[in-house]
Amino acid sequence: MKIFKATMIALVIFGLFSSYAWSQDMAEEKTMANISGRLGIGYNYGWIDEKDNNNLGNIDLDLTHSINLTYGFTKMIALSIEGTYASNYDYDNEWYMAFADLQLRFPKEKWVPYIFAGIGSQNKHGDKMFDRQSFTARAGLGVEYFLNKSWSLNLDGFWMPDIGDDTFEGWQVRGGVKYYFGS
């Protein structure tokens, strides 16, 4: 029931923001930061801090690596699909996460602040934890800086809430680079 409620709340909030975004998208601009109709591929490196809900000891997953694909439906709305690997070498634990996020973007020439929310799954295994897979969600904010029409740098952070048994709960902060195809 927690999962259903969290998903419904996220959809309502995103629906409200999306209606605003569609109204703002009527005048399509061809600025450097407009990714409307374009596909991007990116890499992020980050740090993650887990809240210890499962009495597994101090499992501080400090390194994350992510590969993502982003498609801009409009200059303000994008979909991102991402795969993330996280590990703590002290405890030999590994986490694999996959997400689908909706982004609400606010492009300003080269700078693009954005908020995002999404759903995904986690697969965890290692010495200090049992192998397990679970559903998860996340919400966050970030900023993307365009070096030119094709290359950008980004910095973002997000929260993954505890929405059920065996879910990761914690913050992640990361930075990365992205290449956009097309013009």
Can you walk through the features of this model?
The relative contact order is 0.21. The longest helix has 23 residues, at 2-24. The chain is globular. Helix content is 13%, strand content 56%. Strands 1-2-3-4-5-6-7-8 form an 8-stranded antiparallel β-barrel. It has a single domain, classed as Porin, CATH 2.40.160. The chain is built from 1 helix and 8 strands. By secondary structure, it is mostly beta strands.
Helix content: 10-25%
Give the biggest beta sheet.
8 strands, antiparallel, barrel
How many structural units, i.e. domains? 1
Task: Indicate the mean pLDDT.
Answer: 79
Helix/strand order, N-terminal first: HEEEEEEEE
Cα-to-Cα separation, first versus last residue: 44 Å
Q: Taking Cα atoms only, what radius of gyration do you get, to the nearest Å?
A: 17 Å
Give the tally of β-strands: 8
Q: What is the CATH class designation? A: Mainly Beta
Give start-end ranges of low-pLDDT stretches.
Answer: 53-58
Architecture, according to CATH?
Answer: Beta Barrel
Strand content: over 45%
Question: What secondary-structure arrangement, pairings included, does this model have?
Answer:
Elements lengths: L1 H23 L14 E12 L12 E10 L4 E12 L4 E13 L5 E16 L2 E18 L4 E10 L9 E11 L3
Antiparallel strand pairs: 1-2, 1-8, 2-3, 3-4, 4-5, 5-6, 6-7, 7-8
